[in-house]
Amino acid sequence: MAKLSLRAVQKLTCKKRDAWWTVVLVDPVATRMLIVMARFNFITPNRVTWAALFVGLGSAGFFLKGDTQSLIIGAALYHLSFILDCIDGKLARLKGNGTVFGGWLDYVFDRIRVLFCALALMGGQYLRNGDERFLLAALMVVFLDMLRYVDALQIYKMRMSMRAKIEKVTKEQRDAEEAAEASRTEDEAPKVQFMEDLLRENPEAEAELLKQQAGTAQVVDLHAQFRHRFPWYLRVRQALLRSRIRPHLISGIEFQMFIFIVGPLIGQILMTALVSAVLMGIFELIIMYKFWLSTRDFTTVMAELNEAAPSAAGSIAPHLHRGRHRRGVPEQVLADAELLNPQPEDDPGFQPYPQPYTQTYEPPARNEWPPYAHEFPQQGERFPQPGERAFDHQPQTRTQGRPMYAVPHTHQPQQHGYPGE
């Protein structure tokens, strides 16, 4: 295999924006190790991921011992584990043999490594010192790491959802225009572009200049309010991106590195964990605030795209103002006629309600008053004795049964039966 160029490997495998810890302390080592590892075909991204996990569990074993020498070795092994964790992605990008399962495996193993190392580091210090604050620190580290990555994943999904909705509405409008102007082809039609993509590709350019250079393409800016409220942010962002450093200076990566590397090396584990948690919490709140402003920009953009169709957001459906609970108000239709009268083919399991009983009540004849008098013994008759059935001593001519419904405000006598009837 021909010798790989370091500059070419760095340009092909390194991200355009990454954490400052990765850019400064990981990529220079990882790319050189990648050049050597890429020569062997048996080294695959998934095997490198497994190796990163085992090295991370080894660092947890040294953290559990708790002495100074073991903490230094554990910190060195954790940094090596993180370097291998970066190499698996770079190797997949270099050889093009990455898989969806490999991405999932990498994410899950990262969480497992953090969990075991946090419990081992704080648990080892608790066993040596008996300070219960280390147990609380372990819970804090695991919780914040989980919160950071879950929140980042959810925000990413929401951003992709907003972009998909904007692209869908824009495409529908473009298709309607193309139907009206059949001479214009789809390639000639203006397409929607997002300002964050333009700034990512041209980090040193100004937002307004990029919008002018887009030409006929529609540029959607979902961070306009944030940049308007913090104009200095764009200058800081451009200065950091010149070195491939993203503005999120204290993210999950720096949080882990400070706790599992810096803290054990300087011997201040609790203080380092507390400071790292506070700094990451501040940056996470900034990210959430920025995302909230982005959702407001999204609402504004969607309102501009849907000017022809006024939005009903924030209003109550008309049929809910007048219903059957209102007296003196005509009954309103609460649903479509198709829903109120479903057809058998719409719902195979639908069974109509049975028809109500329509037989009317007929009062007893005058000579049979009071009602139910035939159920009581007449002159010459007696009550049935135990073991006898009630109708054994009744005349055979009494055939009229009890009516189905009783007249309102009439008393229905109770049945007096015997056990076994």
Molecular structure report:
By secondary structure, the protein is mainly alpha-helical. Helix content is 57%, strand content 1%. It is built from 13 helices and two strands, in the order H-H-H-H-H-H-E-H-H-E-H-H-H-H-H. The chain has helices at residues 6-13, 20-37, 45-65, 68-95, 100-129, 133-180, 195-201, 207-213, 224-229, 232-241, 252-266, 269-305, 337-340, and strands at 192-194, 218-220. The protein has a two-stranded parallel ribbon with strand order 1-2. Helix 3 (45-65) runs parallel beside helix 5 (100-129) and helix 6 (133-180) packs antiparallel against helix 11. The longest helix is centred in the middle third of the chain and has 48 residues, at 133-180. The termini are far apart. 20% of the residues are buried. The model is unreliable at 183-189, 329-335 and 393-411 (pLDDT under 50).
Distance between the termini: 98 Å
Biggest sheet strand order reads 1-2
N-to-C series of helices and strands? HHHHHHEHHEHHHHH
How many beta-strand runs?
2
Strand percentage lies at under 5%
Query: Which residue ranges are poorly predicted, with pLDDT under 50 across at least 5 consecutive positions?
Result: 183-189, 329-335, 393-411
Give the fraction of residues assigned to helices: 55-70%
